[in-house]
Design brief:
Structural class of chain B: alpha/beta
Strand order of the largest sheet of chain A: 1-6
Distance between the termini of chain A: 18 Å
Oligomer: heterodimer
Number of helices of chain B: 17
Bound molecules: flavin-adenine dinucleotide, iron/sulfur cluster
Radius of gyration of chain B: 23 Å
Strand content of chain A: 15-25%
Largest sheet of chain A: 2 strands, antiparallel
Order of helices and strands of chain A: EEHHEEHEE
Shape of chain B: globular
Radius of gyration of chain A: 14 Å
Distance between the termini of chain B: 49 Å
Number of helices of chain A: 3
Shape of chain A: globular
């Protein structure tokens, strides 16, 4: 038994909105000296490619925990809100 | 939707539903707004509901009414290293009698039940309703704007019970615009399916008895700890980690949780289980020094939104403080209605009620704890020290043994240093 965040949809339910609730200005990430979001996000939504010097952010499996919002010291978000009502993660028995 | 109410409560978590219940029972017209499709859909926590004296006012036989899993009779603290564990147990018959001292629960079930009780009392619950902004008249809060249809709902008093990030407290200018990662922790949790009989056997429980276990030393040096709780037929296992420390460590929450679950003594307890759900949430763990302004013109802040949470490493108290503060916020709003005065001055009665209750008094008592917990020795050296000493005491390998004093002194010198140890004992004593 192991948690595989790349297969998060197998164990946690989501109703994904097409309209993202978190919008990241990835340009800011290029100059960031910490990138604490990449390791702290419990759903691995942030991936930094050293080779391409590029940040990729995917909000599909976002658990709406708020870690990235608190950890980012660069104000890299053009939007950080909870999803619209009825969308996003759905915990059934946690 | 365009309507007005006597009061609006944002968030149907334990704080919000307790506020709405209190207001509705007093006959006020209250709207309870929740962003989830049902109350509790977005909420997770470790799993232990401490005794809720505030709710026992409304539900005299709380344990027969709320959807609870097991009542906690065994509490333990474990120091863990990669291959050993040292356990301190507290087991008492008193916890096996009503009123029970604590229970395990599932949030989606518990939160929904509490919100339904508020509805039965007359509150109007709107789910799928994310509050986007506050309506203001100058500095006075006069209502909210919801995301769904841009609709506006008005009320002379708004209770912000929207949890740890409380965007509404921020919009009202009551909390600092940015959080300090050193005052926040993130919790990750795995819910593991196991038959009731297996859980009873492994944890030595009968009937609906439950066990709770807090663990130190399972975070590979990241400041934080682990928990393992028994539900009726599942286990809740997880880690709570300081955000600053986690972020700097470069380690990921899921790798740490996987390693924790694979530690040999833990793996034995989880054996044969199936992963049911994975979840994460923030904990405001800065304690008293993190509390924002709790009231303003036309607004009150309750529960996690006001950072009313106590984390000591032995306990994580949040829901009891949330329900209590929610009820007090409800009472303050009722008093304001009687005075027909919703100014900051009038609503300051809420602050007084909080100060007079165990909520603020306990937060003040544990004021030094968050600072004490910023001591990296706790998370690796002490568990290693304890497990190392136990290993020496029990191991038989043909060499003569040292006296206990010698053993202890040597281990302390090697692992921690005597001066550090004395300083830690002193600060730990003052903080707890
Ligand atoms: C990992 C972890 C372990 C914990 N363990 C324990 C424990 O064992 N025992 C314990 O007592 N406490 C524990 N806690 C703390 C406890 O969960 C919280 O203190 C408690 O949930 C706070 O209740 P609340 O009602 O203030 O906030 P919440 O429970 O967070 O409720 C807030 C509600 O507001 C809603 N909301 C948010 N924003 C909006 C918006 N804009 N519009 C509409 N609705 C909104 C949310 O969907 C949510 O339903 C733990 C917390 C974590 C994260
Ligand atoms: S911490 Fe902020 S700026 Fe830095 S990489 Fe992450 S999101 Fe980008
Ligand atoms: S809110 Fe949590 S899960 Fe979502 S992207 Fe941020 S850190 Fe990851």
């Amino acid at each position: 038994m192991k948690i595989n965040v790349d297969e998060i949809f197998d164990v946690t339910s989501f109703n994904i909105d097409r309209e993202p609730h978190i919008v990241l200005d990835t340009q800011v990430c290029v100059g960031c000296d910490q990138r604490g979001c990449t390791n702290s996000c419990p759903a691995r939504c942030y991936t930094w490619s050293e080779e391409d010097q590029k940040m990729t952010f995917v909000y599909d499996g976002c658990l709406e925990c708020g870690t990235c919002y608190v950890v980012c010291r660069q104000n890299a978000f053009t939007r950080w809100s909870y999803p619209r009502g009825g969308f996003g993660v759905s915990f059934r028995m946690t | 939707m365009k309507r007005s109410f006597d009061a609006i409560v944002i968030g149907a978590g334990p704080a919000g539903s307790s506020a709405a219940l209190t207001l509705a029972k007093a006959g006020l017209d209250v709207a309870l707004l929740e962003r989830g499709s049902y109350p509790g859909e977005k909420n997770m926590f470790g799993g232990v509901l401490h005794r809720l004296t505030a709710l026992e006012e409304h539900f005299p036989e709380f344990w027969n009414q709320a959807p609870l899993e097991r009542h906690i009779v065994k509490k333990s603290l474990t120091f863990l290293t990669e291959e050993s564990s040292f356990n301190v147990n507290f087991d008492t018959q008193a916890s096996d009698r009503t009123p029970y001292n604590g229970y395990t629960v599932y949030r989606p079930r518990f939160d929904r039940w509490l919100a339904d009780e508020a509805v039965k009392a007359g509150a109007k619950l709107y789910c799928g309703c994310t509050v986007e902004d506050l309506l203001k008249d100058g500095a006075r809060i006069t209502g909210v704007k919801v995301m769904r249809d841009g609709g506006e709902i008005k009320a002379p008093v708004v209770i912000a019970a929207d949890g740890v990030l409380s965007f509404t407290a921020k919009k009202a200018g009551l909390r600092r615009p940015a959080f300090d990662p050193a005052q926040m922790a993130v919790g990750v949790k795995a819910l593991i399916d196991l038959p009731k009989e297996v859980i009873d056997d492994r944890f030595g429980l009968v009937r609906d008895q439950g066990a709770s276990n807090e663990l130190v030393g399972c975070t590979q040096g990241v400041r934080g700890g682990g928990f393992l709780y028994t539900n009726y037929d599942s286990l809740s296992i997880g880690l709570v980690m300081h955000l600053g420390s986690l972020s700097e460590s470069g380690k990921t929450p899921y790798d740490l949780l996987n390693a924790f679950m694979e530690q040999p003594q833990m793996a034995k307890l989880l054996k044969g289980g199936k992963l049911l759900e994975y979840s994460a949430h923030l904990v405001p763990e800065g304690g008293y020094d993190m509390i924002p302004e709790t009231h303003g013109d036309g607004i009150l802040v309750a529960g996690d939104a006001a950072a009313l949470c106590i984390v000591t490493g032995l306990n994580l108290e949040g829901i009891n403080l949330a329900t209590h503060s929610g009820m007090l916020a409800g009472k303050a709003a009722i008093e304001a209605h009687q005075r027909k005065d919703f100014s900051k001055q009038s609503l300051s009665c809420y602050r007084r009620m909080l100060e007079n209750s165990y909520v603020m008094q306990d937060l003040k008592l544990y004021r030094r704890t968050p600072h004490m917990l910023h001591n990296d020795r706790i998370y690796t050296q002490y568990p290693e020290l304890l497990c190392g000493i136990m290993d020496e005491i029990y191991r038989i390998d043909g060499t003569p043994k040292d006296t206990m004093t010698k053993l202890l002194m040597r281990a302390v010198k090697e692992k921690i240093g005597l001066k550090n140890m004395l300083a830690d004992v002193y600060s730990g004593w003052r903080a707890l």
